[in-house]
Design goal:
By secondary structure, the chain is α/β, with parallel strands linked by helices. Helices cover about 25% and strands about 20% of the residues. The protein folds into two domains: about 200 residues; about 100 residues, no CATH class. Strand 2 and strand 3 form a beta hairpin.
């Protein structure tokens, strides 16, 4: 048994809005994605027999994209640990609260515990962007070799409207526009052309965005170039909540404990993680010379009772996914609490620690791609080759 079986995959089109991640990974054709499936199958086989069925079920879960990416995050962590010379026990029975953490890790005769959590930046609720996936896929199915479109939902109906007239109207409008003329006019501050569609209590306004000359001519690439989005959380709060959720779950482990946070975000910033763990940087002017310090709002600085000292470190990787596994450097943020057991650092991890109020960083000494046994530029090739895209509608 494997996660993905071999079969004649022919659909190389990008992920559709109504498609789950599990469906996409199993459906998408092409050498780039064959590499991804092959490595996932191989890494999955490195788990103990008893752990494989549950992991496979999560990787193939068509009802939860979060389950898929959480499983991929654990798959990557496990392989990185093995490739760094560690032995790994899955869900060991340790701790004082009856729960089992993900990994008990042994390296050079020393042990530590790693608990994985994946979290993603949350979009606004349905009212901020109520476009149904079926409607999004219909718009993306419009033939538009010369333009992308952006859209704004002015009014949303109660039910998904018919799509044939929408696609026909967009096709006629986009075909009537000259991309070079629109581009020149836009450079002279002329607004982009607009088209409004109304049907069944829906009203959507589109803007035509000229494709650059080198990107024109493909009748099957995505038509939507810009989706409206409203972010309802910030990076520091998500990291802080993720560590809080896992930090006290297992009680006393009597070993160094690392919470590994894989976080997906549009614009991830180290400063946000620094704030979440060490507190907001502040300047104090109540003395003769201004001094810098930290506010008491970080994971390790928000309490005087050392209730967070059980977490020895937090390991973070930005936007972990198969196409970033060999490229993004893990960072171990060490606890400044004197009661924390020291967190060991693997050669593939950069480190950060708090010295007074300043964060001191050290680079990794080994490339992460070496630890996972893959080339730096992996997967090789184009995920969506221009000449082989198909977008069935």
């Amino acid at each position: 048994m494997t996660v993905y079986t071999s079969w004649d995959r022919a659909d190389a089109s990008p992920k559709r809005a109504a498609e789950s991640n599990a469906e996409f990974f199993d459906r998408i054709a092409g050498p780039f994605w064959d590499q991804v499936r092959s490595v996932i199958n191989e890494w999955w086989s490195h788990f103990p027999d008893q752990a494989r069925p549950s992991l496979r079920s999560r990787l193939r879960d068509r009802n939860s994209d979060a389950n898929v990416y959480s499983a991929l995050w654990e798959l990557y962590l496990h392989e990185m640990l093995l490739g760094s010379g560690c032995t790994v026990e899955i869900e060991p029975q340790i701790g004082t609260r009856g729960n089992n953490p993900d990994f008990l890790v042994t390296r050079d005769g020393k042990q530590f515990v790693v608990e994985a959590i994946w979290t993603s930046q949350r979009l606004g609720d349905a009212l901020s962007n109520p476009l149904p996936p079926q409607l999004s896929d219909a718009i993306d199915g419009v033939l538009s070799p010369n333009f992308f479109v952006s859209y704004k939902v002015d009014r949303a109906g109660a039910a998904t409207p018919p799509q044939r007239r929408l696609k026909a109207g967009l096709t006629r409008w986009l075909a009537s526009l000259d991309p070079d003329q629109v581009a020149v006019q836009y450079e002279h501050k002329v607004p982009l052309p607009k088209h409004t569609w109304q049907e069944a209590d829906w009203r959507i306004t589109f803007e035509a965005i000229p494709r650059s000359p080198g990107k024109r001519g493909s009748p099957t690439s995505r038509t939507i170039g810009v989706h409206p989005a409203i972010w309802v959380d910030d990076e520091s709060n998500r990291v802080l909540e993720a560590v809080k959720r896992k930090g006290g779950k297992y009680g006393d482990l009597a070993l160094p404990f690392i919470v590994a946070v894989g976080h997906a975000a549009v614009f991830p910033e180290d400063e946000d993680t620094e704030t979440a763990l060490y507190g907001t940087s502040a300047e104090y002017a109540h003395t003769s010379a201004p001094t810098s310090g930290r506010m008491l709002d970080g994971y390790w600085t928000a309490t005087y009772e050392h209730t967070h000292s059980r977490v020895s470190g937090v390991l973070t990787v930005d936007n972990p996914a198969p196409w970033t596994w060999t490229k993004h450097i893990p960072v171990l943020w060490r606890s400044p609490d004197p009661k924390s057991l020291p967190a060991p650092a693997l050669p593939t991890w950069a480190t950060a620690r708090l010295s007074e109020s300043r964060v001191v960083r050290q680079p990794a000494t080994c490339s992460v791609n070496n630890a996972v046994g893959l080339p730096k530029e992996w997967p090789v090739g184009d995920p969506f080759p221009r000449d082989h895209r198909s977008n069935p509608s």
